[in-house]
């Protein structure tokens, strides 16, 4: 059986159990093992082992039945014991309820008895207190204070309590009968009050917080309590302002007092608020006045910088003080303190700001023009100037004498940056120093000054001067500087627009002034764009005029009708070379002067005019066969130049012109076929005929017959 038990292993697996039994049985191995396989012996071992398992099963079953009987018996005994405990618990609960009722009854009796005792004791205590006060009052009547409480300096707290009560009683007595005793009590009241304040002062200097708390508690009922607070505030500030930064000193002082004041006074928020009020109305106000008054009339720039700096530092200090408990409405309290310091300076702030900004802007501009040795021309306004402007827009004619600017644009990014920087600082000061209700209006005033000096006095003046400097279209070797004006004006307007969005918009975004500013900005932009368009248009006319001069000077009639048709060595004419070089130079200049869609718009306009010029120029000559080939070469070169424009419409125009030039050289028999080709099919027949007429052999009957 022991052997059988050894074969059981956890977890039990029947197959493994049989395997272990077989390997333990002699003759149970495989045929190739050390012992020969013996099935009979193995069968006997299985039968014997089954019998052992049956005996084991019976034994275990008897043991299980015995344990079950024992478990049932113990369960019955446990249930019986639980019932007995429940009964005992019920009895204990009933006893607890009875005890609770008895305790409540006794407590009620005790409270009633306490009330009765208090009712008897309170009048008795009052009577004893009144008797003591009468005794002390008699001493004042007799004029001699004998009680130890008045003569012993260590009992100053008790004496203060007594004299405070006697002082209240004396207030109710008639003056004519008790004037002397009332005077004595008042004198003693005053003496004790002074002693207590001196004691408080000494304790503060020694750093005895507990003694300060005791004395302050006694003085709380005296009239001189506020004087005690004043002494505390005064001594707190002794040696507090040792740095160069009074605002940092004030913040450190208030933080130190805030930690201490709650351990001394019963109303710490009131004491701390009084300290802050004292700091603002005395220290800060005198410091601000000293800093501002000395430069208020003599130096507006320094005055505005100091005002902004001082106001900012004061509001920052106020933000730090908001962390402390100063009562119910500390925001209003601190705002009133700040207003009391700066009200005389903020009332006329915007007048000083605008006055300074105007003078500063005028000085920046004048300094720039002086550096250029330029005396500003007066640009007329009113009806005559408006009439000239309308005539110039419609006719594109220069009104008045042309001015030689010697290549000067009279625009300076340095000047613009200085003006924008001054205005940016003005906007920042305006945001900080203006009352919220006045902020949009004040910001608009600053914006109008920026418009006046940057947009009108600088940009508009430069545009007017640039327009006046554009030569007439028939001028020879004219220098065109207006595109430089366009380039710089674009850059400046981007800077102007950025400041408008970054610094002005936040100040006016929620006010009616927003629409007014946007309208003013729109009007300025439209006015500038109108003058830029006029100047660009006249500049393009000058470019075309220069090309005309080049063609007139360089192009010869013999170029397209050479005397010796067989001895033409050039690929294209000298006029074509010079015109293309000039055009490429101007295209590059236009691309550098403008951005975005403006480049394409101007280049397309120039390309159309360039095409018209070449078209009309070719119409002036008669072409032999070799001359026609040379014209085609010229137009091919012009077309190559037109590719630099990168404008599809311009390239298409020159492609068509190139196709038209083929009519100058094509054989008479092929004219109709060429005219019906893809590029020429949609053209008016008169245009085709005009080009055919330019052929030297046009008058021959054969050519006229083929084209008719």
UniProtKB/TrEMBL annotation:
The keyword Transport applies. Residues 50-88 form a coiled coil. InterPro entries: Sec10-like (IPR009976), Sec10_HB (IPR048627), Sec10_N (IPR048625). GO terms for biological process: exocytosis; Golgi to plasma membrane transport. Residues 39-147 form the Exocyst complex component Sec10 N-terminal domain. Residues 158-707 form the Exocyst complex component Sec10-like alpha-helical bundle domain. GO terms for cellular component: exocyst. The keyword Coiled coil applies. Keywords: Coiled coil, Exocytosis, Transport. Belongs to the SEC10 family. This is Exocyst complex component 5. It comes from Pongo abelii (Sumatran orangutan).
């Amino acid at each position: 059986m022991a052997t059988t038990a050894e074969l059981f292993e956890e977890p039990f697996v029947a197959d493994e159990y049989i395997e272990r039994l077989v390997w333990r049985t002699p003759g149970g191995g495989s045929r190739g093992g050390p012992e020969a396989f013996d099935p009979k012996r193995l069968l006997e071992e299985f039968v014997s082992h089954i019998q052992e398992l049956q005996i084991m099963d019976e034994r275990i079953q008897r043991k299980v039945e015995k344990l079950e009987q024992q478990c049932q018996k113990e369960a019955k005994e446990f249930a019986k014991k639980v019932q007995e405990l429940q009964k005992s618990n019920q009895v204990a609960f009933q006893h607890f309820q009875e005890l609770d009722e008895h305790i409540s009854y006794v407590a009620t009796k005790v409270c009633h008895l306490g009330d009765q005792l208090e009712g008897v004791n309170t009048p008795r205590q009052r009577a004893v207190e009144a008797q003591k006060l009468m005794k002390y009052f008699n001493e004042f009547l007799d004029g001699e204070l004998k009680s130890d409480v008045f003569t012993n300096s260590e009992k100053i707290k008790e004496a203060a309590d007594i004299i405070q009560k006697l002082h209240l009683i004396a207030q109710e007595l008639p003056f004519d009968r008790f004037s002397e005793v009332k005077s004595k009590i008042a004198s003693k009241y005053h003496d004790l009050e002074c002693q207590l304040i001196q004691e408080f002062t000494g304790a503060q200097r020694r750093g005895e917080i507990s003694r300060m708390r005791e004395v302050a508690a006694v003085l709380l009922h005296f009239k001189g309590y506020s004087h005690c607070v004043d002494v505390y505030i005064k001594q707190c500030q002794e040696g507090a302002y040792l740095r160069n930064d009074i605002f940092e000193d004030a913040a450190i002082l208030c933080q130190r007092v805030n930690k201490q004041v709650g351990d001394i006074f019963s109303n710490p928020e009131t004491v701390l608020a009084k300290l802050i009020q004292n700091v603002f109305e005395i220290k800060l106000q005198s410091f601000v006045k000293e800093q501002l008054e000395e430069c208020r009339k003599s130096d507006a720039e320094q005055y505005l910088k100091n005002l902004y700096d001082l106001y900012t530092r004061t509001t920052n200090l106020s933000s730090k003080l908001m962390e402390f408990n100063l009562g119910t409405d500390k925001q209003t309290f601190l705002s009133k303190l700040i207003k009391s310091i700066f009200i005389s300076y903020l009332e006329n702030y915007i007048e000083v700001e605008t006055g300074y900004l105007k003078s500063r802007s005028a000085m920046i501009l004048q300094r720039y023009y002086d550096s250029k040795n330029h005396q500003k021309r007066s640009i007329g306004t009113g009806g005559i100037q408006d009439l000239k402007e309308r005539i110039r827009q419609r006719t594109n004619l220069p009104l008045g004498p042309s001015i030689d600017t010697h290549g000067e644009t009279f625009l300076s990014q340095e000047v613009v940056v200085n003006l924008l920087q001054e205005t940016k600082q003005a906007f920042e000061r305006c945001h900080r120093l203006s009352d919220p209700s006045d902020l949009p209006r004040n910001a608009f005033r600053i914006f109008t000054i920026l418009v006046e000096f940057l947009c009108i006095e600088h940009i508009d003046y430069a545009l007017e001067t640039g327009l006046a400097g554009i030569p007439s279209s028939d001028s020879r070797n004219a220098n065109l500087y207006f595109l430089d004006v366009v380039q710089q004006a674009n850059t400046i307007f981007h800077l102007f627009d950025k400041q408008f969005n970054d610094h002005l918009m936040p100040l006016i975004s929620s006010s009616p002034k927003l629409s007014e500013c946007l309208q003013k900005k729109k009007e300025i932009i439209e006015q500038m764009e109108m003058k830029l368009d006029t100047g660009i248009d006249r500049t393009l006319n000058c470019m075309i005029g220069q090309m005309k001069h080049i063609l007139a000077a360089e192009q010869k009639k013999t170029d397209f009708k050479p005397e010796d048709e067989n001895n033409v060595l050039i690929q294209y004419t000298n006029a074509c070379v010079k015109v293309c070089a000039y055009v490429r130079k101007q295209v590059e200049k236009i691309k550098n002067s403008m951005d975005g869609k403006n480049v394409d718009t101007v280049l397309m306009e120039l390309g159309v005019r360039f095409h018209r010029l070449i078209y009309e120029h070719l119409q002036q000559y008669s072409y032999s066969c070799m001359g026609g080939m040379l014209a085609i070469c010229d137009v091919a070169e012009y077309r190559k130049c037109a590719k630099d424009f990168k404008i599809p419409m311009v390239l298409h125009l020159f492609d068509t012109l190139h196709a038209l030039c083929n009519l100058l050289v094509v054989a008479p028999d092929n004219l109709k076929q060429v005219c019906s080709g893809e590029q020429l099919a949609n053209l008016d027949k008169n245009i085709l005929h005009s080009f055919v007429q330019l052929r030297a052999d046009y008058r021959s009957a054969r050519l006229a017959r083929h084209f008719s």
